[in-house]
Amino acid sequence: MVADSTDWQVLGALALATQPMTAPMVAESMGMTRQGAQKRLNKLAEDNLVNPLLNPRHDRSPIWELSPKGAETYKSIMSRYEVWLQMLLPKFESTNADFLSTSRLLLELENALKQTDIQHDVLSAIPGKPKPHRTKTS
């Protein structure tokens, strides 16, 4: 059973992923710790909402996917969310175009942030700060 919004968000992270995810991948996508994601995944597994799968790259870090019950639960939650959202939207003076524009802007911001190396691109531009050195990785 999905007890709170964090459980729903973990289900969403897996539902929207293009491939099964490890706990660190779920954590990164949600901005939480690996341990926090693992705790939620374990709880969801106990409720038969997610399944751990063998990870050929790491024996102790399974990859996770929604179980059929988890997929159905997420679909049900999203249906109720859509109904709630449709009830909420008329209370705003903004138009659908405003919401779409804001959504596009947030996606563009997210993509720009993902492509930004804070250490190199931002901090190095501060006057008086030494330039960071990039190391070659092979």
Short description:
The protein is mainly alpha-helical. Helices cover 57% and strands 7% of the residues.
Output the keywords:
mainly alpha, three-stranded antiparallel β-sheet, flat, 138 residues
Plain-language structure description:
- The chain has 138 residues and is mainly α.
- The chain is 57% helix and 7% strand.
- It is built from six helices and three strands; from the N terminus they run αβααββααα.
- It has a three-stranded antiparallel β-sheet with strand order 1-3-2.
- The model has no long low-confidence stretch (mean pLDDT 84).
Which SSEs are present, and which pair or pack?
Elements: H1 5-16, E1 21-22, H2 23-30, H3 34-46, E2 50-53, E3 63-66, H4 68-88, H5 96-114, H6 118-122
Antiparallel strand pairs: 1-3, 2-3
Helix pairs in contact: 1-3, 1-4, 2-3
